[in-house]
Amino acid sequence: MTRAKFSVARKKRKKKIMDQASGYRGLRSREFRRAKEQVIHSLRYSYIHRKQRKRDFRKLWIKRINNALTQYEISYSRFIHGLKMAEMDLNRKILSNMAIEDPTEFEKVVDRVKEVLAKN
């Protein structure tokens, strides 16, 4: 009789893949080879999209700030330049939330930026 080797490790490795593949459709959740392929692709997609999510949120914040700035008649690029000149360390996420949740404070920031831009 041949000697069984790696049985515990192999079963553990396969179980790990199959647990990750639970919820997939068709053979991708039932057959090990298909499940392994899909898990590899899924992990790659999740890695890529974690990076992409950061880009997407930055784009969203910029759009929100630009939209809020239209009523103050200042462009987004001039506003950001004015923030740097005024040495106000506010990031785009904070500015976006401020424009939505607290327009009066946002208006104060815009006024300060306009003052700084007018001086220079």
Descriptive account of the structure:
- By secondary structure, the chain is mainly α.
- It has a single domain, classed as Orthogonal Bundle (c-terminal domain of poly(a) binding protein), CATH 1.10.1900.
- The protein has 5 helices and no strands.
- Helix 2 packs across helix 4, helix 3 packs across helix 5 and helix 4 (92-101) crosses helix 5.
- The longest helix has 38 residues, at 32-69.
Uncertain stretches: none
Domain count, please report it.
1
Encode the helix/strand succession as letters. Answer: HHHHH
What sort of overall outline do the alpha carbons produce when their principal axes are compared? rod-shaped
Second rung of CATH, namely the architecture: Orthogonal Bundle
Largest sheet: none
What structural class is derived from the secondary structure elements? mainly alpha
Helix content range of the residues, please?
Answer: over 70%
- Under CATH at level 1, the class stands as Mainly Alpha
What integer is the average pLDDT? 95
